[in-house]
Amino acid sequence: AWTLLTETPITPTWYIDSGWDALPNGWYKWAVKALYSNGVLSVAALSNPLQQENQAAGDETAPVPASGLCDIYPNPFKGPVSIVYALKDRSLTQIAVYDVKGRKVRSLAGGEKLPGIYTAVWDGRDDGGGKVAPGVYLVRMQAGKDRFARKAVLWR
User: Fold this and answer.
1) Residue 154, class by beta-carbon neighbours within 10 Å (0-12 exposed, 13-18 middle, 19+ buried)?
2) pLDDT of 13 strictly over 70
3) Alpha-carbon distance 73 to 48, whole Å?
4) Measured between alpha carbons, how far is 88 from 14 in angstroms, rounded to an integer?
5) pLDDT tens digits for 85-130?
6) What are phi and psi of 22, to 5 degrees?
C-alpha cells in the first residue's frame, strides 16, 4: 500500500520525510513522480529499499551489532545526502568527506558518542560553505581505533 506524503508539489530537488521516525520497523521504498510544466505526470521512480529499525519503545539500550557506515542515501545525489552510521560502543567518533585526491572537504560529525545509530547530513558544500564540484567523494568514519569508508557520488 502507498501512503501519499503531500498533495502539494515539492519544488526543491530533495525532500526530508518528517514521518520516517514514526514508521514501524520494516523495509520501505519511496515512489516519486514528476509533474511537468505542461501538466503531464510521469510514471513513478522507485528508491532503493530502506530499512527502518527503531528501538523498541522504552528500550534506550537496544544493542547495535557492529560499528560502521550503514548507508548513504540517496547515492548518487544532487541535494542533501544522509549518512547513516552505527556505534556498537561508546567512542570518540569523526565523520568527514574527502575528495579523490585525499583532501578533507568537509567535517560532518565529531566527538564522543554513545552506542546507537546516527545520521549526518552533507549538503554538498565544503567547510567554507562553497559548493563542491560534481564527482566521487569518500565518506570516512573513525570510531575509536576502527575506520570505515564508503563512496558518495555528487552530480548536479
Assistant:
1) buried
2) no
3) 9
4) 30
5) 999 999 999 999 999 999 999 999 899 998 888 889 999 999 999 9
6) -85, -10
Question: Pick from 129, 94, 130, 128: which is nearest to 112 by CA?
Answer: 94
Lookup result for grid cell 510521469 = 42
Beta strands in the chain (DSSP E): 26-28, 31-32, 45-46, 50-52, 68-73, 81-87, 91-98, 104-113, 116-122, 135-143, 146-154
Q: For strands 116-122 and 81-87, give the pairing.
A: antiparallel
Beta-carbon count within 10 A of 132 CB: 17
Please name the residue ranges forming H helices in 3-80.
Answer: none
CA distance 121 to 13: 15
**Residues found in the chain:** 156
What is the reported pTM?
Answer: 0.61
Give the whole-angstrom CA distance, residue 151 versus residue 61: 30
Closest CA to 84 of 2, 12, 20: 20
**Band of residue 53 on the pLDDT scale cut at 50, 70, 90:** low
